[in-house]
Amino acid sequence: MRVLRAARGVARAAAMLWRQRHAIYHMLARLDADANRLNTRTIHVPILPVIGTTPQPHYMQWSTCSAADFLDPRFHAVCAALGHVPRFHRKLWEFVYVFHHLEQAGMLAPGRRGIGFGVGTEPMPAAFAACGAEILATDAPPALGVAAGWAATAQFASGLDTLPRAGLCPEHIFRRNVSFRPVDMTAIPADLAGFDFCWSACCFEHLGSLQAGLDFVRHTVEHVLAQGGIAVHTTEFNLSSDDATLETGGTVIYRRRDIIAFIAEMQARGHIVSALAIAPDTHHMDGWVDIAPYSNDAHLKLALGQYTCTSVGLVIQRGR
User: Fold this and answer.
1) Where would I find the H helices in 43-89?
2) Which contacts (CB < 8 Å, 24+ apart) does range 156-163 have?
3) Alpha-carbon distance 160 to 172, whole Å?
4) How many domains does the chain have?
5) Residue 49: what pLDDT?
6) Does 143 reside within a domain?
7) 154-162: long-range contacts at Cβ-Cβ below 8 A with a sequence spacing of 24 or more?
8) Coil, helix or strand for 316?
């Protein structure tokens, strides 16, 4: 009898634990739903084509992604050239940042030669070709693209025919002005030299370490460009710390001190580098930090591990 009573006691305890487990689960689900409803009520994501545009006094003068840039009519004009509907997404800001600074430098014109690294499925090769520039688009060799997972996420270009150009550039101009070549960004062939401009959009943070990414940027300036050529690169920027960061691995995050030191190094080597200017974050969209799974409509800042990050750009002219 004692064994039977003990067994019944164990069964009752187990049943109680089971009910408590389900009660806790449902309570957490309600809290999560309440949080989502609160966010829906309090966070308004403006629809850019709806709210219109106003010229911004500091358009594209910041090195980091700023909501103010998205409100300028020039941003929308470049979006049209790139085949994108304007939206608050830092990747789109990076594309416009690259386009803007190359256009301002007079690089997007007939007679100019440019090379893009890690182009994946971005619209720049076709858009630059439509401006008359001769473009060599590159991406990682197939083995690297597969190993890194890019090939499985539609972010990888394996040849000329995989590059987007519909609505961006007439096919005959695209075929005339754009070529493709697989290139490992950590071992750029010596014959890739003499270009008027080069670019990469959020690529060099994936080369394994902070130093490997900066070595790539330096190489593009000093070996890929002709003297006077322009390099425009974007990468991840740590807004949480100027000390702790992700220094190695599949994605690294550059701190303010890393960028400042690199700018000083490149200036000392005789190159002209735009100063680091961190945006003041004056729009409410600047305070929104996206978390995984990431949004397509409100993604100017994101959480990577314990760090809040955004995009930062480097503009460098080869001086010697």
Assistant:
1) 48-51, 67-70, 73-81
2) 156/120, 156/121, 157/119, 157/120, 157/121, 158/182, 162/121, 163/119, 163/121, 163/125, 163/126, 163/137
3) 13
4) 1
5) 76
6) yes
7) 154/121, 155/120, 155/121, 156/120, 156/121, 157/119, 157/120, 157/121, 158/182, 162/121
8) strand
132 token code pair: 């008359």
Q: Residues 211-243: pLDDT tens digits?
A: 999 999 999 999 999 999 999 999 999 999 999
State the amino acid at position 149 in one-letter form: G
- Residue 298 domain boundaries: 53-317
Is 39 domain-assigned? no
Quote the CA–CA distance of 50 and 19 in Å, as a whole number: 49
Q: Model-level pTM?
A: 0.85
Q: What is the pLDDT of residues 107-145, one digit of tens each?
A: 999 999 999 999 999 999 999 999 999 999 999 888 776
202 within a domain of the structure (yes/no):
yes
Whether the per-residue pLDDT at 152 is higher than 50: the answer is yes
Long-range (24+ apart) CB contacts under 8 A made by 249-255 are: 249/208, 250/148, 250/206, 250/208, 251/205, 251/206, 251/304, 252/205, 252/208, 252/209, 252/210, 252/213, 253/205, 253/304, 253/307, 253/309, 254/205, 254/210, 254/213, 254/312
191 lies in some domain: yes
Q: For the domain that residue 250 is a member of, what is the CATH number?
A: 3.40.50.150
